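Protein data sheet
==================
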Amino acid sequence: MSNVLRHQAEQQFAEELDQLAKADRRPRPENWQLSPWAVATYLLGGTLDNGFNVTAKYIGDKRLIEIAVATLATDRALLLYGLPGTAKSWVSEHISAAISRDSTLLIQGTAGTSEEQIRYGWNYALLLAQGPSRTALVPSPMMKAMENGKIARIEELTRIPSDVQDTLITVLSEKNLPIPELGIQAQAKRGFNIIASANNRDKGVNELSSALKRRFNTVILPLPESADAEVKIVHKRVTEMGQALQLPAEPPALKEIRRVVQIFRELREGKTADGKTKIKSPSGTLSTAEVISVINNGMALAGHFGDGRVQASDLASGLIGAVVKDPVQDSIVWKEYLEMVVKERNEWKDFYRASKEIDV
């Protein structure tokens, strides 16, 4: 068994990608490994003509995925936008894996991201010894994607300073990257495009200029519409991650997952599931990704310090940690929810007791 903590999508789902490539008879844009139809099938799941089952990587609106994939077949870049934890990075990685069979051409956006990280850098030992030359140049993931006709990914685009963001305008407009030190330019091959992600709840973000916005087609990835859909997503991801991390615990029963999902949804929406009681919402986003994190943490506790079965006490500490981001404001919100909602539900008494034992 491989000791790699996390395989890239194209490695983990290599068999599915191979089967899709064999069954795919539809037109493919140049340098795409699969047709747009097959890319969408890889993301959404389905059964091929030969009976092979492709697992769903994204559970949600089919049309959103189709729009995203179709965008990348044009000359416009794709911006995946939405709340934190709505699978933007997950979708970006899997689309890149399906189109280019390479999801590693990634630029992680931060407040410290520089132009060099988007354009290119230099091997300074060679630069001093030889002066500017092609061998001394260190291509960025963006430049590699352009030269090989692949998809480049940019995570958290709005975290990147505005003047650095605008480096992308020439790349997206002219499909080339000037290298003035050498008097040449790197030209994009067919198949090159960019998938960027950004969330609308991050503090300290840098708004995109109108010039840059025009060069992206924006697809908003929403939170799951129904509790059932969210439970399905969480159960699938928890099972997969539990196996990958080799957690010595059984995935929790659906009723435990549903209970955590219900708590998150009620706090997120500011009312109980039946709509009868209004409650305050905490400062955090309480995304589906955080539900998955809470349950994985509970599985680790149950496996390493319990009997392997996830109990309310295993989930309570992680859930409180996800809800209470602001120790003053969120603590009040959580305590009110605990007394007004959780305490009144007879089938939740174990969770109420476990939560009361944790001081917040």
Q: What stands out?
A: The chain is about 45% helix and 10% strand.
